[in-house]
What does this fold into?
Amino acid sequence: QLQLVESGGGSVQPGGSLRLSCATSGFTLASYAIGWFRQAPGKEREGVSCISSGGGRTKYADSVKGRFTISRDNAKNTVYLQMNSLKPEDTAVYYCVAVLQTAQAACMMSSRIGSWGQGTQVTISA
It folds into this structure.
């Protein structure tokens, strides 16, 4: 069973940084692409970024390009999301989940594998 646990959230001022971690267990992380998603109050959950199983290919939502960086350490069974230049609109609960990977697409944020975890809260405010 795929188990993923998010951590690293918190409250920071605009312009600040946070690094989220997604600790995985119960499966071979190196076999799966992983995506980060977020859900702000009153809004639908949206894809933020995803990374291929080997880490060589990544995707980002336009709203976070140039500010967020996704990475993974398969040996440590962990995926990271480095978030810089944070804005109030980045406030949300952030989730990680396995996503489908194909030969054509590095990772498909539209195709989730497994269940959502509890997420980690990120709050950006002055």
